[in-house]
Structures are given as C-alpha cells and as structure tokens.
Design goal:
alpha+beta; Aminopeptidase; 9-stranded mixed beta sheet; GNAT family N-acetyltransferase
C-alpha cells in the first residue's frame, strides 16, 4: 500500500497510531463502559495497548489489508477507526471504531467515519462496507443509521467476550448509497 493516508476533517486529524499513543489507547481500552459492546475484554496492561498498535500497523501489509486511524482532537488521541479485511476481489471490507467516553455525544466519530468512508469508497474503490454491532449498542446503531448504513440481520453467537457468546447485528453501506464528504488527504 501507499504511505499512510492522513485525513483531516473540520475538528480531527486522522493519523497513524504510533508507539507514544499506547497510554492514551490503554485509557480507552481499559474503560469497561467504553469496551462494553466493543468485542474485547478491557485491557489491563500498557503492553496490551502497545501490541494493539503493532497489530494495527501490520494490517497494511497483510494479504487482505486494513488501515486503522487514530483520532486526534486538539492534540489528544480520543479513539480510532478503521477499514479492515479488505476483499479486493469483492470490493468490500469491514469497519470498526471506538471512542473515549469523554468524547461521546460530540459528533466526532460521525465526522471521522464520514472521512474514512469517503476515502474507502474513493481510494479503495469499495462497493460494500459492513459493520458488526451488538444488538444492545443503540448508540452505534444510531450512528450507522445516520451514516446511511442498512441493518441486514443478526449473526447468532458470532462474538465472544465478557465470558459469553454475543449476537452481532450486521450493517452495510453500498457505494451508491453513500453521500460523499471530501476528506483532505495528506501523506
């Protein structure tokens, strides 16, 4: 893939996650409320956040690559979002994101995802982007609906965290359904 695509929105810089982000990422991922529906158990160690940054960095070199952006607002990392599991033959991929509770309700993730979705449809030439959401995660469902995603159905016991299997609702957005925003790309 090309150099890391830095995206700019009105309030955010979407950039590559780096080693010095580990402490901020740990604060988000250790928060049980923030991770309640995310699909992983909360982190407890800085080394886990460092390993996650390494994993995200390696996504771009995989056979089915992905890109994970750190969401920086006023010099502070507030979360991340990304496109992954890129199936080039099918022109499809998956979407995931998380945000620090202190940033909830401010429209920052919506702003970030509009830039990422626009980049994915334009640069990756995607036809379909899908997201998996826990059926009780009403905030994420509302966000996806605002972005134009359609609920397709439920994958029974598709996830496992918190010591039990979890159903996941499938949402998708097709390229012709998306109303593009114009992210500013650098790098």
């Amino acid at each position: 893939m090309t150099p890391f695509p830095v995206l700019h929105t009105e309030r955010l810089c979407l950039r590559e996650l780096i080693a010095s982000d580990a402490a901020s990422l740990l604060e988000i991922y250790r928060n049980a409320e923030a991770m309640r529906w995310f699909g992983v158990d909360p982190m407890t160690e800085l080394s886990q956040a460092q390993a996650l940054i390494d994993t995200f960095s390696q996504w771009r070199a995989q056979a089915n690559p992905g890109t994970r952006w750190g969401l920086e607002h006023e010099g502070k990392l507030l979360g991340s979002c990304g496109l992954y599991k890129w199936n080039r033959a099918w022109n499809s991929c998956s979407l995931a994101c998380e945000l620090a509770p202190s940033a909830w309700g401010k429209g920052l993730m919506s702003e970030a995802l509009r830039a990422v979705l626009g980049w994915g449809f334009a640069q990756m030439q995607l036809h379909r982007i899908e997201a998996l959401v826990h059926p009780q995660n009403l905030a994420s469902q509302a966000l996806l609906n605002r972005l134009g995603f359609t609920a397709e159905g439920v994958l029974r016991d598709a996830g496992f965290w918190g010591g039990s299997y979890q159903d996941l609702q499938v949402f998708s957005l097709l390229s012709h359904e998306y109303e593009p925003a114009s992210p500013q790309v650098s790098g």
